[in-house]
Amino acid sequence: MSDDLIHDPKGGMPRLLEIMRRLRDPETGCPWDLEQTFATIAPYTIEEAYEVSDAIERESWEELKGELGDLLFQSVFHAQMADEAGLFTFDEVADGMSDKMVARHPHVFGDESRDKSADQQTRDWETIKAAERAAKAESGVLDGVALGLPALLRAVKLQKRAARVGFDWPTTDEVMDKVAEEMDELRQAEDAAHRFEEFGDLLFVMANLGRHMGIDPEAALRAANAKFTRRFGAIEAALADQGRRPEDSDLQEMDALWDAAKAVEKAQKG
């Protein structure tokens, strides 16, 4: 094939697929791309998904366009390697996704009524997914919850699955009691292995508390990370005005500067 498509600025999806094919060409491709496997590319795929989320959170729409392209390229990379191994093609990936969306939206693409709430549509979606899992011989309630998910997200998904069959606390109060219980067990842990276990239990029940309160724990922690970064940046800026750095200060002073930054933020919120 000529290079016309490679250099066509309006080549769209065919252009990207051809670029990926050429990068993996055993004779003329890129040595780095040729060395990659599903396992080595997977961490980049996860990283690109987070960068998409980050651009959305910052409402950086032009940056989002680029990050979506990076994430799309990850799908193209995996599909090219699968094609080379005789597993499946990119078109089969796209067709499979289209089939899934049509099957999961009978109220849009079939003869079911659209006259139902978003909650009912969510329940119907879960019913369809349960049938799909059964067809894959995934008989366990927790089967199919991906191991590679971020731990907090996977915890919530596991808890939601268990809740569907009644394995759940009826109110937030019981979850709060469990948080206190896990805190006590962490305090009483006698060695590193026990502390590790109890700390994990505490994180798990905190994720459950977020679910009961309608809070996404991953989003809440991201917000807390952003707040910490912002306020620590204010500490650095205040010290820089005096020609100093954090290592030239002490905890008491930095704590006071933190409180000052916190007060400014509260005032700005009104």
UniProtKB/TrEMBL annotation:
Keywords: Hydrolase. InterPro entries: MazG-like_dom, NTP-PPase_MazG-like_C, NTP-PPase_MazG-like_N, NTP_PyrPHydrolase_MazG, PRib-ATP_PPHydrolase-like. Residues 36-109 form the NTP pyrophosphohydrolase MazG-like domain. GO terms for biological process: dATP catabolic process; dGTP catabolic process; dTTP catabolic process; dUTP catabolic process; response to stress; TTP catabolic process; UTP catabolic process. It is an enzyme of class 3 (hydrolase). It catalyses: ATP + H2O = AMP + diphosphate + H(+). SUPFAM superfamilies: all-alpha NTP pyrophosphatases (SSF101386). Pfam families: MazG (PF03819), PRA-PH (PF01503). Gene3D superfamilies: MazG-like. Its EC number is 3.6.1.8. It comes from the Bacteria. The keyword Cytoplasm does not apply. GO terms for molecular function: ATP diphosphatase activity. NCBIfam families: mazG (TIGR00444), PRK09562.1 (NF007113). PANTHER family: NUCLEOSIDE TRIPHOSPHATE PYROPHOSPHOHYDROLASE. Belongs to the nucleoside triphosphate pyrophosphohydrolase family. This is Nucleoside triphosphate pyrophosphohydrolase. It comes from Mameliella alba. The lineage of its organism: Bacteria, Pseudomonadati, Pseudomonadota, Alphaproteobacteria, Rhodobacterales.
